[in-house]
């Protein structure tokens, strides 16, 4: 794997981690295997990047689609590639079970179904909290003279709705609620058919939205929605559909479930630790600056939220090739940009993880101590008891160092704080978890 740093290979990193753990990595039957240590180092690199926001990268693309996800675009530095099988393997190592991936060859304390269900529950919760599974749902059927639209059960949330009539111009619907319609649109609310102006979610049954005026002609809706991930079905491998560098958060959430249930595997102390790390990770996901700069055909442009564009230029996407010039930012990785144009984005990339022992670790000499401490503390988790608790001081040191390095990197520019907030504008404008005022 080519890169800027060529001073430490994965094989050498594994040897160093083995020395920290006082094992002979040349022997095959150790408490930790080389393959296991390589996974811990890989996850430590991802955890380091999620804490420090280190590996930024430029990405250029040209798409015929208005809406695109940087998590699925070919060649994207944020391409989501990790699968549930990868997580099963690491969790099996941590639980002192045989590392057999999506099949189960371990003890009766757990099963592959236990691991799969725990991962899937936590994965979908992470998607909801972080808003990282947005997609465009087109051609949603509507029934004339009916105000309510039902949705499939894999839809978690609805960000934006647009009415597409068979004839005439589309209308972007303003998100409101039924109380506002009663106060300001009565007595016509829900009575007079015509062109709807708003949609509401607050008082409707789950998996539905409601418009203020029943449509008087056939057409469809188009919606930006938050979608749950694909069901896991081991032994088949399924993409996690979250950012690679937050996979460690997912695993801690699943481990908290597995060790916190009433069974012979119950371990309240480590379950509480895993739950704490999982909750910390969720908060981290809400702050991560996944996109920082944007360009169209080589010229710098602003990054604006869906909310702001719909309020101040509601017909902005009527001309998919000519709006702006700007890039519209939705949930994590989800953007709209003029079609058939050269789009450039500076993003927080996936941590570069070596795929073979001879590949170089893409980490500076000054930060390698942080990474190996994270890997060492993760490797010590499976020891449990006093030895594991003693290793928590190593993790504490690593996290404190990550915080200091993050602060240093943010201070390199006069407007570092603004740079790191640009991709979070939709979350701030809609404010899904701490609603203030009337914006959302």
Break the fold down into its secondary structure elements and pairings.
Blueprint: H1 10-20, H2 34-52, E1 56-61, E2 67-69, H3 84-94, H4 112-130, E3 134-141, E4 148-150, E5 155-165, E6 171-176, H5 178-185, E7 198-200, E8 208-211, E9 219-227, H6 247-260, H7 268-287, E10 291-296, E11 299-305, H8 306-312, E12 326-329, E13 334-336, E14 343-348, H9 368-380, H10 385-410, H11 416-421, H12 425-430
Parallel strand pairs: 6-7, 11-12
Antiparallel strand pairs: 1-14, 2-13, 3-9, 4-8, 5-6, 5-9, 7-8, 10-11, 10-14, 12-13
Description:
This protein has 440 residues and is of the alpha+beta class. Among the domains are: 1-54 and 351-401, no CATH class; 134-227, no CATH class. 36% of the residues lie in helices and 18% in strands. It has helices at 10-20, 34-52, 84-94, 112-130, 178-185, 247-260, 268-287, 306-312, 368-380, 385-410, 416-421, 425-430, and strands spanning 56-61, 67-69, 134-141, 148-150, 155-165, 171-176, 198-200, 208-211, 219-227, 291-296, 299-305, 326-329, 334-336, 343-348. Helix 2 crosses helix 9 (368-380), helix 3 crosses helix 4 and helix 4 (112-130) packs across helix 6 (247-260).
